[in-house]
Structures are given as structure tokens and as C-alpha cells.
Design goal:
CATH architecture of the largest domain in chain A: 3-Layer(aba) Sandwich
Number of helices of chain A: 8
Largest interface: A-B, 65 and 65 residues
Structural class of chain A: alpha/beta
Distance between the termini of chain A: 38 Å
Number of strands of chain A: 9
Largest sheet of chain A: 7 strands, mixed
Oligomer: homodimer
Order of helices and strands of chain A: HEHHEHEHEEEHEHEEH
CATH class of the largest domain in chain A: Alpha Beta
Helix content of chain A: 40-55%
Radius of gyration of chain A: 20 Å
Chain lengths: ~220, ~220
Amino acid sequence: MAPNSESRQGRSEVPEVVISRLPQYVRILNRLLEDGIQVVSSQQLGEKLQVTPAQIRKDLSYFGRFGKQGRGYSVHDLLERLRQILGINSPWNVAVVGVGRLGRAILSYPGFNPDGFHLVAAFDLNNSIVGDTVGGLVVRGMDELDRVIDQEEISIAIVAVPVDFTQNVVDQLVACGVRAILNYAPITPQVREGIRIRNIDPVLSLQSMTYYINDD
Amino acid sequence: MAPNSESRQGRSEVPEVVISRLPQYVRILNRLLEDGIQVVSSQQLGEKLQVTPAQIRKDLSYFGRFGKQGRGYSVHDLLERLRQILGINSPWNVAVVGVGRLGRAILSYPGFNPDGFHLVAAFDLNNSIVGDTVGGLVVRGMDELDRVIDQEEISIAIVAVPVDFTQNVVDQLVACGVRAILNYAPITPQVREGIRIRNIDPVLSLQSMTYYINDD
């Protein structure tokens, strides 16, 4: 995992918090482009993202020079460059493991495809639903994991299995060559170096709001 | 929304990114307490949270003085203080709006209650499921929103309705007195000042991982 280094050299030396902000930049820039806006200042970007202009300039400085002093950024060029940096200028195949209520919601979520994340395979631990079709995909058993991940060139998995099964499923995915995992269970599974994991955690989100609505 | 100010005075002047990190501190401190650890250094905390010790000291400095130079923090005291700051030292009543696949998964998610978020009411736009019992709650129609939110003293809502309905539902919740909203739809609803909103966005999470698994 990347430490909060100030170095501008290696990929691994850019702070993870900076990387985690870039997709929001991409989203804002996409909207500006749709609105026909061609140039944007760090001030304007900062207002949209609720960070200081200095923070935006600092974030972008990790990746070289963008824009011209006092002239703002070309929306198109900055967007293309950030998409390239993030590796989202080409599509990714994604597997979903866990086809319970949450997995079904994920498989029917319309937001993945437009952003280049193609859900191409679904797996479940429960053999009684293996063979069912959900969201256009046939649910497969875990015994097919290795073959399908290899065949479909899947690098990313979304894990929506009960908490007690999560670590084991994550381990299996990593053993099959998956390198990035989005986990919906309220734990932080352990993965070896080089494997990325993100946890969807609604409690953390709730806890970051109570501060603002408490006692005022 | 809080600007990234350096001021240490007002509640609204603490950077939102700092607030958003505090729940992770709480989680780590809870684990340390469970493990019987009584004192922790900013170095140790930083390792667990993947931020620099300086960042941790800076984050905590917004709220006054914690710990003693060179002696680390009392896990118990820091935890209690952070829970108090975040307003999570007493429970919150929460409504869920949208009882489709995702809403059902949310209502059966076991992680809310232990952290003091009590799901006490469920609503849906679709009258055909109003009256059904899901996760121990009777699904109510939107016409009951105002009365139930008032009666149950609900300040927080989780919104899991289709994207086209989200802004309207958010507006209704705010009109009924809800002050913090966790939204699962892949849009950023607009809310007036003083209302907090967080969006669960799996695509942003995925996009923050591809950087690390691209071309290496």
C-alpha cells in the first residue's frame, strides 16, 4: 500500500488518498464536457469537489504538468489524461461472487457498464442457485471460478457474500488471478501485497455525517 | 459544506476529509481495545490506517490536545473522545426508503445495529409492497413519511430507490426533517446547506483500484 509520500516518481509513491480522489475529478470533468465547457480553473474544480484549489493543483502535480499558469485546464485533455492514468480508458471484465439479495442488486445496477466495468460472470457458494440466470448471467459454482476467470480475462471481482465467507472467497479469487476486489461485507479482508481491495461500508459513511447533525 | 480550512475553531471549519477519516480511527481503536492494548503511538495508528503519523497528529489537532508528547495516546480516552466528537456515543434512528433488492439487503445487513444505527422504519414508492414485512419492519407508503419521521425521531435516512426517483425522495426526506442521507443511487442529489449527504458509489471504488492493476 502506498504511504503518503511526497515523491512524484513511482506509481506506488502517489498517496492513495490522491488516487481515490481522481475518479471524482473524472466524473466532474465528464459533466463539464457534456455541458460544452472547454476550460476549467482549479478554483472551479475545487468548488465542485469541495477541496481547495491548492489541493487540486497538488493532486495533479503528482502526474506532471497540466494546464498553463493562469489559463486553467483543458477539460478534454485533463479528462483523457486522468482516464489514462487511472487505467479506465479501456474496459475491464468483472466477476460478481455472491448472488443473494445484494448480489442481485449489483448485477442489475446500471452504473457499471457505461463506465467500462463489464459484469461478465456471477458465482455463488450455494449450489441450489447455481444454473439460475440473474441479470443475464448464468450463476456458476465456485468450482468454475478458476477456469472462467482465466477464460474471460477477469481482473476485478465484486464480493457480496456473508461476512463469515468473505475472507475465504477473497483468498480463492486472489489464487485465481483476480487483482482488485470490491468487498461489500463489513470486514476488511487481508490480501497479499499487490492485490487491491476496497470495502463498501455504509456504517463508516453514516458515522462521517453524524458529526454534522449532532447537537446543532 | 466545510472548506479545507486550517482553522481549529468552529465545527464547520474542520476539513470534511478529516471528519471522514475519524470513523476509521474509531474502528481501529475499538479493535485495539478489544485486543487489550491501552496505549498507541501515532506511528502505530498510521500504519494501521495507511496514513503518515504526521497526518494523524494533524487530524487530531483540530479537536484539541490528545496524548502526551512521546507517550502515545490512551486508546480508551481517544476512542471515547472521538465517539463524542462524531456524535456516535448515543444511538440514531434511521429510515430506509426503497425496499427493492438493495433495500432488502440493507434492511438485513447486521452491521448497523452494533454501531448504534437503528433501522426503525422502511418506506417504498410502490404501493403493491406497502404493508409487507421486511427485516422485521412493515413497509410504509410515502404518505406516512412525515408522521413516522417525526414520531420515531428519525434524523438519518438511507435511500435505495431507482436513480430517477432519488432527487425527489431526497427532497421529501429533507422536507420532513431528515438531516443526513446515505444515497445508493449513482448520482449526487442536491441538498440545501446544513443537510449532509453521502453517496455509495461502487464505480468510484472500482476506478480507484484500476490505477494499481493497470499495466503492471
